[in-house]
Amino acid sequence: MTDLPYSESTVDASPRLRTWRGPIFILLGAVLALVGLNVPLPYVVFTPGPTVDVTMAVDNTPMIDIVPAEGSDEVDLTLDPLHQEGDGTGELRMVTVSEHGGPGNRITLFDLLRLGFIDGSNVVSYDSVYPPEATADEVQSAAQAQMRFSQSTAAVVALEELGWKIPATVTILGAVPGTDSENKVQEGDTLLSITTPDGELHPMDSASAPFSLMRTIPEGSSMVLGLERDGKELSVTVVSGPSPDNVGSKLGVFLDPVTTMPLDVDIRLEKIGGSSAGMMFALGIIDRMTPGDLSGGKVIAGTGALSYDGQVEPIGGINQKIAGALRDGATWFLAPDANCSDVEDVPEGIRVVSVATIDDAQEAVNSIAEGKGDSLPTCHQ
Question: What pLDDT score does 89 carry?
């Protein structure tokens, strides 16, 4: 068997083929590039989001509206006049992070390139933020629930800061698995009291009571819980467990304080979710219920979730929030102390103050208003 003769042609392509080959390749390249730019990518990009002055009124409608609760018509309530844009008063700005690439809104290469040019942007893998089965509706519902909780918590904390008594019924939702409370408490139990190792009985008659008490109790302490279950009172003894922040200890139960508010506090804020505005909401309520301009004419932004006992808790996106605050004119920023290690290079023009409690935050705002802010602790590295 012999091989067929083979010769490589030395004749060039026809002029017509040469004429069309270049444009065809360019067109194919453009199509491939366009397709590539629009393929969903497994990333989420966080950028500085909008900021909102919680003390401001728009068209004479306050951001924070406060009225006596139904049945509390005789409550003595005096509110500070509304702050209008351009009236010379300062600002207390809550801050947000804009998210790109979550469930139902995956980003493309074009989006990734475009968003990468925004100051303060941060790119993370999708899997590090969301489980594969997460849906847009679930994420939105969770964010709105967090926002409602942050607003109600802020109202309780602010009123207690101003000396109001806010009674509450503390209901147990269940035990934390693996803690000593497991199989001792039940869902629906009412927590009436806690007796500490020194024998003192502490009534659990406010939303803050169990949280503030447990911050003073060392891990491994034997506590007697006074409960009401199915209309009967009983006692159970539990040993407290570790606290995530190494301050005090935890009972190992999920609690749901239901408060009786003398005032209805309505915070008008749409299309924003999450829990991180609690501290700024509380400061805005305090500003509304006290005479004068709490910020002293300064533009102060801040972030931090708020617990019922007034602790300012850590949040996400601290660097994006600082960038957004600076963009919108803030020269001061209140940040949770627990987030200070997350703060990267602080841009020129803004000072990041560290706060751990609502008391710290209020004192910081007062100091800034009085021109004494330079003495405050900062997160600057």
Answer: 75
Alpha-carbon distance of 121 to 119, in angstroms, equals 6
Predicted confidence (pLDDT) per residue in 315-333, tens digit: 999 999 999 999 999 999 9
> How many residues are listed for the chain in this entry?
381
- Compute the distance between CA of residue 264 and CA of residue 284 in angstroms, rounded to an integer: 15
* Two structure tokens written together for 24: 């065809």
Name the CATH code of domain 168-259 (choices 3.90.245.10, 3.40.640.10, 2.60.40.10, 2.30.42.10): 2.30.42.10
pLDDT on residue 1? 43
Q: Are 161 and 310 in contact (CB under 8 A)?
A: yes
Residue pair 377/353 in contact (Cβ under 8 Å)? The answer is yes
The answer to whether 340 touches 354, Cβ cutoff 8 Å, is: yes
Q: Tokens standing for 170? A: 């503390």
CATH assignment of 47-107+135-163+262-375, among 3.30.60, 3.30.460, 3.30.230, 1.10.3470: 3.30.230
- What type of residue sits at position 370? E
Provide the residue type at 168 as one letter.
A
Q: Which runs of consecutive H residues, i.e. helices, occur in 132-244?
A: 136-161, 209-214
